[in-house]
Amino acid sequence: MKHLTYILLITSIFFLTNSCKKTLDISIDESEKKLVVNSILNPDSLIRVNVTKSMGALEQDADIQFINDAKIKLYKDNNFVEDLIFQENGYYISTIYPEEGKTYKIEIEQSDLGTASSELTILQPVPISQINSNFKYEITEYVDEWGAYSDTSISATVVFEINDPANQDNYYAISAYTYYTNYYWDEETYEETDSIIGIWKNNLWISPSTVDYQYSNEIRIGEDYIYAFYKETGDGKTFSYTFDIYNLMKDQKVYFNLYSLDKNIFLYGKSYSEQIDASYTPFAQPVNVFTNIENGYGIFGSYSIYTDSLTVQ
Protein backbone atom coordinates (compact mmCIF):
# COMPACT_ATOMS: atom_id res chain seq x y z
CA MET A 1 0.00 0.00 0.00
CA LYS A 2 2.81 2.37 0.86
CA HIS A 3 4.41 1.60 -2.50
CA LEU A 4 1.19 2.49 -4.36
CA THR A 5 0.83 5.74 -2.39
CA TYR A 6 4.40 6.73 -3.35
CA ILE A 7 3.72 6.12 -7.06
CA LEU A 8 0.52 8.20 -6.94
CA LEU A 9 2.43 11.05 -5.22
CA ILE A 10 5.20 11.11 -7.86
CA THR A 11 2.62 11.01 -10.69
CA SER A 12 0.69 13.93 -9.17
CA ILE A 13 3.85 16.04 -8.87
CA PHE A 14 4.77 15.29 -12.52
CA PHE A 15 1.40 16.45 -13.87
CA LEU A 16 1.29 19.44 -11.54
CA THR A 17 4.77 20.56 -12.65
CA ASN A 18 3.98 20.24 -16.33
CA SER A 19 0.64 21.99 -16.00
CA CYS A 20 2.44 25.06 -14.59
CA LYS A 21 4.68 25.52 -17.63
CA LYS A 22 3.98 28.54 -19.81
CA THR A 23 5.71 29.74 -22.94
CA LEU A 24 6.79 33.40 -22.69
CA ASP A 25 7.49 35.53 -25.73
CA ILE A 26 10.24 37.97 -24.72
CA SER A 27 10.41 41.14 -26.78
CA ILE A 28 13.89 42.69 -26.96
CA ASP A 29 13.81 46.31 -28.05
CA GLU A 30 16.08 46.58 -31.09
CA SER A 31 17.47 50.04 -31.75
CA GLU A 32 17.11 51.63 -35.16
CA LYS A 33 19.55 50.21 -37.69
CA LYS A 34 22.21 52.67 -38.77
CA LEU A 35 25.32 52.88 -40.90
CA VAL A 36 28.56 51.74 -39.25
CA VAL A 37 31.54 53.56 -40.76
CA ASN A 38 35.19 52.75 -40.04
CA SER A 39 38.11 54.61 -41.58
CA ILE A 40 41.59 55.45 -40.29
CA LEU A 41 43.55 57.98 -42.36
CA ASN A 42 47.29 58.49 -42.55
CA PRO A 43 49.42 60.33 -45.14
CA ASP A 44 51.09 57.10 -46.34
CA SER A 45 47.92 55.33 -47.51
CA LEU A 46 45.01 55.95 -49.84
CA ILE A 47 41.77 56.89 -48.08
CA ARG A 48 39.76 53.71 -47.45
CA VAL A 49 36.33 53.43 -45.83
CA ASN A 50 34.44 50.35 -44.64
CA VAL A 51 30.65 50.47 -44.29
CA THR A 52 28.40 47.90 -42.58
CA LYS A 53 24.95 47.77 -40.99
CA SER A 54 24.57 48.03 -37.23
CA MET A 55 23.65 44.79 -35.44
CA GLY A 56 21.17 43.88 -32.73
CA ALA A 57 22.00 42.66 -29.23
CA LEU A 58 21.60 38.97 -30.13
CA GLU A 59 23.44 39.08 -33.44
CA GLN A 60 26.94 37.63 -33.80
CA ASP A 61 30.00 38.63 -35.85
CA ALA A 62 28.91 36.13 -38.48
CA ASP A 63 25.78 38.24 -39.01
CA ILE A 64 27.69 41.35 -40.14
CA GLN A 65 26.05 42.85 -43.22
CA PHE A 66 28.40 44.70 -45.58
CA ILE A 67 26.93 47.73 -47.32
CA ASN A 68 27.96 47.43 -50.95
CA ASP A 69 25.60 49.97 -52.49
CA ALA A 70 26.51 53.15 -50.61
CA LYS A 71 27.54 56.44 -52.16
CA ILE A 72 30.50 58.08 -50.42
CA LYS A 73 31.56 61.64 -51.18
CA LEU A 74 34.97 62.96 -50.12
CA TYR A 75 35.70 66.62 -49.35
CA LYS A 76 39.00 68.38 -48.62
CA ASP A 77 38.85 71.76 -46.88
CA ASN A 78 35.12 71.89 -47.75
CA ASN A 79 35.78 71.33 -51.47
CA PHE A 80 34.37 68.23 -53.17
CA VAL A 81 37.15 65.91 -54.34
CA GLU A 82 35.58 62.68 -55.63
CA ASP A 83 33.19 59.78 -55.09
CA LEU A 84 34.93 56.80 -53.49
CA ILE A 85 35.14 53.61 -55.58
CA PHE A 86 33.55 50.40 -54.28
CA GLN A 87 35.88 47.40 -53.93
CA GLU A 88 34.38 44.49 -51.96
CA ASN A 89 32.93 43.54 -48.57
CA GLY A 90 31.82 47.07 -47.75
CA TYR A 91 35.16 48.69 -48.65
CA TYR A 92 35.41 51.87 -50.68
CA ILE A 93 38.67 53.55 -51.76
CA SER A 94 39.80 56.94 -53.01
CA THR A 95 42.48 57.85 -55.51
CA ILE A 96 44.30 60.32 -53.26
CA TYR A 97 46.55 60.31 -50.21
CA PRO A 98 45.49 62.59 -47.32
CA GLU A 99 47.74 65.59 -46.67
CA GLU A 100 49.00 66.76 -43.29
CA GLY A 101 47.23 69.85 -42.02
CA LYS A 102 44.22 69.39 -44.33
CA THR A 103 40.64 68.79 -43.19
CA TYR A 104 38.70 65.89 -44.73
CA LYS A 105 35.02 65.06 -44.62
CA ILE A 106 33.13 61.99 -45.79
CA GLU A 107 29.39 61.80 -46.49
CA ILE A 108 27.85 58.32 -46.77
CA GLU A 109 24.38 57.70 -48.21
CA GLN A 110 22.45 54.44 -48.52
CA SER A 111 18.82 54.05 -49.59
CA ASP A 112 17.61 52.05 -46.56
CA LEU A 113 19.83 53.46 -43.79
CA GLY A 114 19.94 57.13 -44.71
CA THR A 115 23.04 59.31 -44.46
CA ALA A 116 26.00 59.63 -42.12
CA SER A 117 29.04 61.91 -42.06
CA SER A 118 32.22 62.79 -40.21
CA GLU A 119 35.13 65.25 -40.41
CA LEU A 120 38.74 65.41 -39.20
CA THR A 121 42.08 67.17 -39.68
CA ILE A 122 45.28 65.27 -40.47
CA LEU A 123 47.90 66.07 -37.80
CA GLN A 124 51.52 66.95 -38.40
CA PRO A 125 53.91 64.28 -37.03
CA VAL A 126 55.67 65.26 -33.80
CA PRO A 127 59.43 64.60 -34.01
CA ILE A 128 61.60 62.73 -31.51
CA SER A 129 64.35 65.23 -30.77
CA GLN A 130 66.63 62.66 -29.10
CA ILE A 131 66.78 58.95 -28.20
CA ASN A 132 68.79 57.82 -25.18
CA SER A 133 69.28 54.14 -24.45
CA ASN A 134 70.79 51.93 -21.77
CA PHE A 135 71.35 48.30 -22.78
CA LYS A 136 71.27 45.48 -20.22
CA TYR A 137 72.86 42.08 -20.74
CA GLU A 138 71.86 38.96 -18.82
CA ILE A 139 74.01 35.86 -19.39
CA THR A 140 72.65 32.44 -18.48
CA GLU A 141 75.00 29.45 -18.48
CA TYR A 142 73.88 25.90 -19.20
CA VAL A 143 75.52 22.49 -18.98
CA ASP A 144 74.17 19.37 -20.68
CA GLU A 145 75.49 16.18 -22.28
CA TRP A 146 76.95 18.25 -25.11
CA GLY A 147 78.96 20.46 -22.81
CA ALA A 148 78.73 23.98 -21.37
CA TYR A 149 77.26 26.93 -23.23
CA SER A 150 75.70 30.31 -22.46
CA ASP A 151 72.77 32.38 -23.68
CA THR A 152 72.73 36.19 -23.64
CA SER A 153 69.47 38.10 -23.19
CA ILE A 154 69.52 41.80 -24.13
CA SER A 155 66.99 44.41 -23.05
CA ALA A 156 67.08 48.21 -23.10
CA THR A 157 65.65 51.18 -21.30
CA VAL A 158 64.84 53.83 -23.91
CA VAL A 159 64.10 57.50 -23.32
CA PHE A 160 62.38 59.61 -25.98
CA GLU A 161 62.73 63.38 -25.90
CA ILE A 162 59.55 64.66 -27.57
CA ASN A 163 58.86 68.20 -28.78
CA ASP A 164 55.32 68.63 -27.45
CA PRO A 165 53.22 71.14 -29.46
CA ALA A 166 51.91 74.05 -27.39
CA ASN A 167 48.33 75.06 -26.59
CA GLN A 168 46.65 71.73 -27.38
CA ASP A 169 45.99 68.34 -25.85
CA ASN A 170 48.31 65.82 -27.44
CA TYR A 171 47.73 62.12 -27.98
CA TYR A 172 50.63 59.81 -28.75
CA ALA A 173 51.45 56.16 -29.25
CA ILE A 174 54.74 54.29 -29.56
CA SER A 175 55.67 51.04 -31.26
CA ALA A 176 59.02 49.27 -31.59
CA TYR A 177 59.95 46.62 -34.12
CA THR A 178 62.80 44.88 -35.92
CA TYR A 179 63.18 42.99 -39.17
CA TYR A 180 64.32 39.39 -39.43
CA THR A 181 65.86 38.07 -42.63
CA ASN A 182 65.82 34.37 -43.49
CA TYR A 183 68.51 33.12 -45.86
CA TYR A 184 68.67 29.97 -47.94
CA TRP A 185 70.46 27.09 -46.19
CA ASP A 186 72.99 25.14 -48.24
CA GLU A 187 72.49 21.50 -47.24
CA GLU A 188 75.94 20.48 -48.54
CA THR A 189 77.99 23.06 -46.64
CA TYR A 190 75.50 23.55 -43.78
CA GLU A 191 75.89 27.31 -44.11
CA GLU A 192 73.60 30.20 -44.94
CA THR A 193 73.94 31.67 -48.42
CA ASP A 194 73.36 35.18 -49.72
CA SER A 195 69.97 34.14 -51.12
CA ILE A 196 67.12 35.68 -49.12
CA ILE A 197 64.03 33.58 -48.47
CA GLY A 198 62.00 36.32 -46.81
CA ILE A 199 61.99 39.36 -44.52
CA TRP A 200 59.60 39.54 -41.57
CA LYS A 201 58.64 42.40 -39.30
CA ASN A 202 58.80 41.54 -35.60
CA ASN A 203 56.97 43.82 -33.14
CA LEU A 204 58.69 44.25 -29.77
CA TRP A 205 56.90 44.34 -26.44
CA ILE A 206 56.97 47.79 -24.78
CA SER A 207 56.79 48.24 -21.02
CA PRO A 208 56.38 51.96 -20.14
CA SER A 209 58.30 53.28 -17.16
CA THR A 210 56.78 56.74 -17.38
CA VAL A 211 53.42 56.64 -15.60
CA ASP A 212 52.53 60.28 -14.97
CA TYR A 213 50.18 60.63 -17.92
CA GLN A 214 46.40 60.49 -17.85
CA TYR A 215 46.08 57.23 -19.74
CA SER A 216 48.44 54.62 -21.02
CA ASN A 217 47.41 51.38 -22.65
CA GLU A 218 47.67 49.26 -25.78
CA ILE A 219 45.36 50.06 -28.68
CA ARG A 220 45.20 48.47 -32.09
CA ILE A 221 45.69 50.18 -35.45
CA GLY A 222 45.49 47.82 -38.41
CA GLU A 223 47.45 44.69 -37.53
CA ASP A 224 49.72 46.43 -35.01
CA TYR A 225 49.25 46.98 -31.29
CA ILE A 226 50.69 50.29 -30.16
CA TYR A 227 51.13 51.81 -26.72
CA ALA A 228 49.06 55.00 -26.45
CA PHE A 229 49.21 57.79 -23.89
CA TYR A 230 47.67 61.21 -23.40
CA LYS A 231 49.43 64.40 -22.43
CA GLU A 232 47.55 67.47 -21.27
CA THR A 233 47.79 70.79 -23.06
CA GLY A 234 51.39 71.20 -24.10
CA ASP A 235 53.48 74.26 -23.24
CA GLY A 236 55.75 73.90 -26.25
CA LYS A 237 58.53 72.32 -24.22
CA THR A 238 60.32 69.00 -24.64
CA PHE A 239 59.25 66.17 -22.34
CA SER A 240 60.64 62.67 -21.73
CA TYR A 241 58.91 59.32 -22.16
CA THR A 242 60.69 56.22 -20.83
CA PHE A 243 60.00 52.58 -21.65
CA ASP A 244 61.70 49.17 -21.72
CA ILE A 245 62.02 46.76 -24.64
CA TYR A 246 63.16 43.13 -24.58
CA ASN A 247 64.42 40.21 -26.69
CA LEU A 248 67.07 42.18 -28.54
CA MET A 249 70.13 40.90 -30.40
CA LYS A 250 73.61 42.35 -30.72
CA ASP A 251 74.07 44.69 -33.73
CA GLN A 252 70.33 44.53 -34.39
CA LYS A 253 68.62 47.65 -35.73
CA VAL A 254 65.50 48.64 -33.80
CA TYR A 255 62.91 50.96 -35.34
CA PHE A 256 60.58 53.24 -33.39
CA ASN A 257 57.34 54.83 -34.52
CA LEU A 258 56.01 57.84 -32.65
CA TYR A 259 52.35 58.19 -33.61
CA SER A 260 50.61 61.54 -33.40
CA LEU A 261 46.99 60.47 -32.86
CA ASP A 262 43.92 62.59 -33.29
CA LYS A 263 41.51 62.62 -30.36
CA ASN A 264 39.03 60.40 -32.22
CA ILE A 265 41.41 57.42 -32.52
CA PHE A 266 42.59 57.81 -28.95
CA LEU A 267 39.09 57.84 -27.43
CA TYR A 268 37.92 55.01 -29.70
CA GLY A 269 40.91 52.81 -28.82
CA LYS A 270 40.61 53.62 -25.12
CA SER A 271 36.87 52.88 -24.93
CA TYR A 272 37.19 49.72 -27.02
CA SER A 273 39.91 48.35 -24.71
CA GLU A 274 37.79 49.21 -21.66
CA GLN A 275 34.77 47.46 -23.19
CA ILE A 276 36.81 44.30 -23.80
CA ASP A 277 38.12 44.38 -20.21
CA ALA A 278 34.59 44.88 -18.85
CA SER A 279 33.29 41.89 -20.80
CA TYR A 280 35.44 39.59 -18.63
CA THR A 281 33.92 40.93 -15.39
CA PRO A 282 30.22 40.14 -14.85
CA PHE A 283 29.70 43.01 -12.38
CA ALA A 284 31.50 45.71 -14.38
CA GLN A 285 29.65 48.74 -15.69
CA PRO A 286 28.95 48.47 -19.44
CA VAL A 287 31.17 50.65 -21.62
CA ASN A 288 29.96 52.37 -24.78
CA VAL A 289 32.57 52.52 -27.53
CA PHE A 290 33.33 56.07 -28.66
CA THR A 291 31.99 57.12 -32.06
CA ASN A 292 32.38 60.35 -34.05
CA ILE A 293 30.07 59.36 -36.92
CA GLU A 294 27.10 61.73 -37.15
CA ASN A 295 23.84 59.77 -37.52
CA GLY A 296 25.75 56.49 -37.38
CA TYR A 297 28.36 54.50 -35.52
CA GLY A 298 32.07 53.84 -35.93
CA ILE A 299 35.28 55.83 -36.17
CA PHE A 300 36.73 58.34 -38.62
CA GLY A 301 40.23 59.04 -37.30
CA SER A 302 43.75 59.87 -38.39
CA TYR A 303 47.38 59.62 -37.34
CA SER A 304 50.83 60.63 -38.55
CA ILE A 305 54.11 58.84 -37.85
CA TYR A 306 57.64 59.98 -37.08
CA THR A 307 60.16 57.11 -37.42
CA ASP A 308 63.62 56.81 -35.88
CA SER A 309 65.97 53.95 -35.04
CA LEU A 310 68.97 52.79 -33.03
CA THR A 311 71.39 49.87 -33.21
CA VAL A 312 71.90 47.50 -30.29
CA GLN A 313 75.43 48.07 -29.00
**Apparent shape:** globular
Helix content: 10-25%
Mean pLDDT: 82
Taking the sheet with the most strands, its summary is:
11 strands, mixed
What percentage of the residues does DSSP assign to strands (E)? over 45%
**In total, how many domains does the architecture comprise?**
2
Helix/strand order, N-terminal first: HEEEEEEEEEEEEEEEEEEHE
Topology, number of strands: 19
Which structural class do the helices and strands define? mainly beta
Rg (CA only): 28 Å
Count of helix runs: 2
Termini gap: 94 Å
Q: Which terms summarize this structure?
A:
mainly beta, Immunoglobulin-like, 2 domains, eleven-stranded mixed beta sheet, four-stranded antiparallel beta sheet, 2 helices
Structure description:
- The protein has helices at residues 2-19, 263-279, and strands spanning 35-41, 48-53, 65-66, 71-76, 79-83, 85-86, 91-93, 103-110, 114-121, 128-144, 147-163, 170-186, 191-204, 206-208, 216-221, 224-231, 238-248, 253-261, 296-311.
- By secondary structure, it is mainly beta.
- The protein folds into two domains: 35-121, Immunoglobulin-like (Sandwich); 128-289 and 303-311.
- The strands form three sheets. Strands 1, 2, 3, 6, 7, 12, 13, 15, 16, 18 and 19 form an eleven-stranded mixed sheet that branches. It has a four-stranded antiparallel sheet with strand order 5-4-8-9, with no helix packed on it. The protein has a four-stranded antiparallel sheet with strand order 10-11-17-14, with no helix packed on it.
